[in-house]
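FAQ

Q: What does a record look like?
A: Structure on top, sequence underneath. For example:
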């Protein structure tokens, strides 16, 4: 009887082990990283002409999109970076909406425009509770908050990645030579999805 029991147990272990060893088919993820600055006019063009089309054309969970705000085009640029990080922390589902709203506000001049008032107006446009809006505002305005730390990490990452121009776009780690060329961007995404 013991032999039968051991045989059955070994068979069960072997079946479980074999089942665990089977390779599951996973679709390849496409990682898109955009280095940008809310004060960059070319970043605004990218957002309005290409990014929104990417979001429509590639409605798939296979695309992982990451924004890295370099915040190097003026002292007020860091305010936008901190606010975006605060939205990501408090209401991550509203991050892209906030990003689009804020970059739409960019004027046709290089002067200071990323003020607390302008940023707060864009936060108030989000479809979230008043409590969440207040948390976001407090988070991005509070020195040494998590939003401040994350914004600083993005700046350090951009420096480490030697980003000199914005927008800079990388698809699966490969830099796109002209991120404002929609055909080139879509071809690289399509190729990455097929790989």
């Amino acid at each position: 009887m013991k032999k039968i029991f051991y045989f059955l147990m070994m068979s069960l272990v072997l079946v479980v082990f074999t089942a665990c060893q089977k390779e599951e088919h996973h679709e390849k993820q496409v990682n898109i990283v955009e280095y940008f600055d809310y004060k960059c006019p070319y970043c605004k063009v990218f957002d309005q002409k290409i990014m929104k089309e990417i979001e429509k054309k590639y409605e798939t969970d296979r695309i992982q999109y990451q924004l890295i705000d370099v915040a190097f085009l003026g002292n007020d640029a860091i305010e936008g970076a901190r606010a975006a990080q605060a939205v990501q922390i408090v209401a991550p589902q509203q991050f892209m909406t906030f990003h689009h709203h804020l970059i739409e506000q960019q004027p046709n001049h290089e002067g200071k425009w990323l003020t607390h008032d302008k940023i707060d107006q864009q936060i108030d446009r989000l479809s979230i509770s008043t409590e969440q809006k207040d948390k976001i505002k407090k988070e991005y305005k509070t020195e040494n908050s998590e939003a401040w730390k994350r914004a600083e990490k993005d700046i350090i990452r951009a420096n480490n990645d030697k980003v000199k121009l914005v927008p800079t776009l990388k698809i699966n780690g490969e830099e796109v030579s002209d991120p404002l060329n929609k055909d080139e961007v879509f071809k690289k995404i399509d190729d990455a999805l097929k790989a």
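Q: Is there anything notable about this one?
A: Strands lie at 30-36, 63-69, 168-171, 174-175.
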